[in-house]
Each structure stands twice: as C-alpha cells, then as structure tokens.
Amino acid sequence: LFGNTWMQIVGLKEEDVSKGDSTRGMIIAFINTLIGMVVLASIIFMTGTTTFFRGLHIGGLVGIGFVATTMLTNTVFEKKSLKGWLIDAGYHTVYFLINGGILAVWK
Question: Residue 24 has what pLDDT?
Fold first, then answer.
C-alpha cells in the first residue's frame, strides 16, 4: 500500500529490496513481533479484557503510547521524514490494534 513511498523516503530502489537474502531480517522481525504480542497478551490478560473492542483499545494504547511515541523520538533526533514515521508507526499501531482485538477474544 505504501511500499513505493516508503522506499523513496528511505532511499531504496526496487532492485535493492529484491536482491540479497532477507532471511535474517525476517527472523528478527518474527521474534520481535512474537515478543510484542506476548507482552500485549499479558496486558490484556492482566486487565481482564475479554471483548474485541476493549482489546482494540488496549492494542491502540500500546501502539500509540509506546511504539509510535518512541519511534517519533528517534525520527526527530535522526532528522528523518515525518511521512516515513507515519508509515512505520502506523503499520505497527495497526497490527497492535488488530492483534489486541484478536487476543482479547481468543479462548
């Protein structure tokens, strides 16, 4: 959806993305996502959340309150594009939102 815009912002070309082995990056992304979802599931469990919309709410709080704000600090100090931050932070916030809803109703 925002792939071309993101590549332009970070200075990558299509051939840069397609060449090389992305296995290491995929493994690290998988482990990081797993850790994030375990933490989110723990928060949902500790708060006794059992409805999809409450799960969305908690996922949104985590996504915006912890992930997006931390990423914004890095973006500002690294003098990177706010448009790039919106894409990156938005992606992470959306997956915390969706997973929050799913984890809340998962028995």
Answer: 87
φ, ψ of residue 25 in degrees (nearest 5): -60, -40
66 close to 100: Cβ distance less than 8 angstroms: no
At what angle are helices 82-105 and 52-62 packed, to 10 degrees? 150
Single out the residue of 90, 84, 38 nearest to residue 68, CA to CA.
90
Confidence of residue 31 (pLDDT cuts 50, 70, 90): very high
Query: What global pTM score does this model have?
Result: 0.83
Taking the C-alpha atoms of residue 63 and residue 40, their distance in angstroms, rounded to an integer, is: 10
